[in-house]
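User: Hi! I have a protein structure encoded as tokens and I'd like to know what sequence might fold into it. I'm fairly new to this, so please keep things simple.
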């Protein structure tokens, strides 16, 4: 079983898989496949199997890994890519969680308990994802 935490004050919530990473200007660009759309307000064309770009600043040490799935919750995108699709900035207001695979998650009960531990972290640094916000359940 998969348990998803929905936070009402966030505008967009996705379960994504990182396909590849590129670099442009001062940003790391993550090309992702939307595995599951949980909530979206402005991005009317997004659905499961859509491609979306998530960006973070190069000075941010937190990075997403190709091939991994992440739960990403945050503000709607404010820019579009070359195909007119919305892009999203991973910053200090974005919640990012690595989704554990079956081997790392011994039971759905452990996963549920970890989700309950999610709380508010108020330690943003230079507009980056706060370190405590980007972690796995392993």
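Assistant: Happy to help. Inverse folding works backwards from shape to sequence: for each of the 138 positions I chose a residue that suits the local structure. Here it is:
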């Amino acid at each position: 079983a998969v348990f998803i935490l929905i936070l009402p004050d966030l505008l967009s919530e996705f379960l994504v898989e990182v396909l590849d990473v590129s670099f442009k200007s001062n940003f790391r660009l993550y090309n992702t496949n939307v595995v599951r759309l949980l909530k979206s307000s402005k991005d009317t064309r997004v659905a499961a199997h859509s491609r979306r770009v998530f960006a973070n600043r190069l000075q941010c040490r937190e990075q997403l890994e190709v091939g991994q799935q992440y739960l990403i919750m945050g503000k709607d995108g404010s820019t579009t890519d070359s195909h007119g699709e919305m892009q999203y900035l991973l910053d200090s207001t974005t919640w990012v969680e690595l989704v554990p695979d079956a081997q790392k998650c011994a039971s759905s009960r452990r996963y549920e308990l970890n989700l309950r531990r999610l709380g508010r972290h108020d330690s943003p640094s230079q507009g980056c994802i706060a370190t405590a916000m980007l972690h796995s359940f392993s």
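A useful reference point when you look it over: The chain is about 5% helix and 35% strand. Feel free to ask if any position seems puzzling.
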